[in-house]
Amino acid sequence: MLTLYDGQPFWHCDGISRRNFLRIGSLGAAGLTLPNLLRAGDPSRQNSAVIIYLPGGPTQHETFDPKPNAPVEIRGSFKSINTAIPGVRFCELLPKLSAMANKFSVIRGLVGMMNRHESFQCYTGRPGGNSSDNEPAGGWPSFGSMASKVLGPGTNGMVPYVDAAPKMSYQPYGNNGVHLQGPSSWPGFTGHEHVPFALEGEVKSDLTLNGIDLARLGSRRDLLNGLGQQQEALEGHGIDSFQQQAFSMLTSNRLADALDLELEPQPVRDRYGEMQNTDPSFGGAPQSPQHLLLTRRLIEAGVRCVSVAFGAWDWHANREGTIEYLSKKYLPVFDHALATFLQDLDERGLLATTTVVVWGEFGRTPRINAKGGRDHWPGTQSVLIAGGGIEGGRIVGETDGIGGVPVERPVHVQEVFASMYHNIGINIDAVKIPDLNGRPRYLVDDNRQPIRELYTS
After folding, report:
1. Are 400 and 407 within 8 A, CB to CB?
2. How far apart are CA 198 and CA 24, in angstroms?
């Protein structure tokens, strides 16, 4: 929601009276969140990151790690095809990504994920919510929250962290720290001022910003009319220069323009393609290429980190159809949308400074089950990673003949996070953030380092 100052004080538990005039949904519980972000400064150079979350856990066999020589109950119904990387093959349902495989790299042996249907581990690199997880006081923050805490706002004071995911009915898929068990642990010990600016809805028709209708935000005239009624009262309470800057940002068209796809040329919107709904029983996201276009616009506008969910991947064959049916229906849209997004970033010079990670919470079983689907498999998964200084055309690790476990160079999930932090300019060996008990916490554990194979020697 957007709350304008109504002349009434907003009391906090610390006893400080704050004026409740600048609160937008999950920008934070306190009214002064955005001004505080602006006080943090503006870097001269900005690298960004995009996390594309695939709710439900995608199949490695029907995507980036096919096993064409395995028995049919392992390899499935589809052939493999050559890619732009000599000797590397992907599933035949990914021809566009195969043709541009030299622009990104693939981790084929990711480990460290838990068998839990929740986005939390894809955004934090750790499990959470259970007593056995040994979370620190306040809980683990997401990557975007850490980036916001350490680096501050994006270019020209832009909001540092945006969750652009469409609305999903299964709550643990959302970027809000909801767990299968136990209490919520988001936004973690970085505090509410570092939660993402969250968007929901279909981009063209009913996109909302935690309750703010996009049309309202985009209409500077309407917003200024509302602010005009409060301006005299605000000036009487002595708002400082950072609060003035925050007002300027919210009442300018900068953020609204980034969110308004009508400002994008029609050929570009057409190039990305139209949304395909996923079966509601999955509780996941639609396949919305327009949300990927929105993500590009946010990065271009100066946001440091954008998370976005794409599709519904819990393909047991207990919903909608077999893995053969689901692959034929959903993988071509995934292939087109992701290839278009990566090409668009590359053509605009953004891929060099934007790290893109595409993954789910785990992989799928090597053997197709009796219903014609694949079940949960935390033993390994394939991850696409690109940009931000990462070399394209590299395959890191290898799984066994049935795609079940890594047999060469397993990559831990926190190595992926170490790479992302490195790419956006954070020294993981030096930066520590105190949890709510005051204990300093490194951004990654166990001395994990960036994935060396992804960088030029």
Report:
1. yes
2. 10
| Structural domain span for residue 134 | 49-225+263-454
How many Cα atoms sit within 13 Å of 387 on the Cβ side? 26
pTM recorded for the entire structure: 0.85
Q: How many CA atoms lie within 13 A of 250 on its CB side?
A: 27
Answer yes or no: is 448 within a domain.
yes
| H or E element in which residue 83 lies | none
Q: Is 367 exposed, middle or buried (0-12, 13-18, 19+ CB in 10 A)?
A: middle
Tokens of 415: 């190595």
Instruction: Tell me which of 11 and 152 has the higher pLDDT.
Output: 152
- In a domain? residue 96: yes
Report phi then psi at 10, rounded to 5. -115, 110
Euclidean distance between CA atoms 86 and 393, whole angstroms = 9
Q: Could you read off the pLDDT of 10-53 as tens digits, one per residue?
A: 333 333 233 332 333 333 333 334 444 444 444 446 999 999 99
Torsion of CA 239, 240, 245, 251, to 10 degrees: 10
Q: Which residues of 79-112 are buried (b: 16+ CB within 10 A; e: fewer)?
A: ebbebebeebbbbbbbebbbbbbebbbbbbbbbb
Return d(Cα 443, Cα 134) in angstroms, integer: 15
Residue 382 lies in a domain: yes
Question: CATH code at 402?
Answer: 3.40.720
The residue behind tokens 């789910």 is 360
